[in-house]
Design brief:
GO terms for molecular function: ABC-type maltose transporter activity; ATP binding; ATP hydrolysis activity. Keywords: ATP-binding, Nucleotide-binding, Transport. With 375 residues, the chain is an alpha+beta fold. 25% of the residues lie in helices and 33% in strands. The protein is elongated, with a radius of gyration of 25 Å.
Length: 375
Amino acid sequence: MAELQLKSLEKTYGNGFKAVHGINLEVKEGEFMVLVGPSGCAKSTTLRMIAGLETVTGGEIRIGDQVVNDLVPGKRGIAMVFQNYALYPHMKVRRNLSFGLRLKRQPKDQIEQSTQVVSNILEIEELLDRLPKQLSGGQAQRVALGRALIKEPDVFLFDEPLSNLDAKLRASMRVRITDLHKRLRSEGRPATVVYVTHDQVEAMTMGDRICVMKDGHIMQVADPATLYERPANAFVAGFIGMPEMNLVPAVLSSNGAARLTLAGQTIMAGPDLTARLQTADGPVTLGIRPQHLEVLEDGAAEAFSGTISNLEFMGHEVNVHARVGDATFVAVVPTERFDTTLQRGDKVGLRPIAARLHLFDPETGENVSLADQNS
């Protein structure tokens, strides 16, 4: 396996549209890196440039110690798993798995041994004599994964490989792929992976580190816990986490201690936030995750007074939607702690857990409530 480096990578199309804006990214040997972002953020374009399926118009791609910008895909030491599986419909699973090895004219006994090893790892031995049309979606995806694995590439590339599967199967395949990555690492065969998805659940559960992208720019690269706890900007804060972070306009005043004013109501934000602040008084975007917002009786200390606009029963928890002036908050309350007498239109207190508050610059989106920021 090998390290992957993107240096000032750019992609500009013939019509002048710039899709990728000089991004820099390093994927360590054996690392599982996830590229995540909304549709149109250029994550798949970036992956296709790494694969050699899109031309690079600026910067360089380095795999190991070699710049691969001008190499054809087959010479880059990569293997790619596509969204649509891309299996050859006229070939049985056995030949689909071994096709790349046969192109390289490897000895038949070596091909057979490799096919057997990979089919055992992915538990598809009973599928070897079936055609792709005889496979379920999950089976076809495992075959596509096996076809990449058997090549023993320097870098594995995954382009939204689970998006065609139902929710239950996606969950099981997430576990299967991450378990395979850990198994290869424990066996001394660390697999360097770049995995593209628009699904933040996949990103948070699979990646060693996650690269969050927007409009062809990298917004933050970090491990899942850091992205959740210390988002570098409002975009990352709003994109990572379910339900998404509450982001509402407020006014900061910090005469000795931080105070936040929203819809004419002022609360003390606490010494923790005061110590972290990197901004002067003025307009801010207040950020608080729904899990860190307490629902209390109206009039509770250091709580905004709001009106319930909707209640969503989710089984193990209840999503409480409440309005404070023109702003809407969502709070997540465990079902066993939820006051079942509450209804739409009721007044409640909404108290942010002070240590979990974030403040963002309303113009730049930068998190101004982090004492330091490591990407």
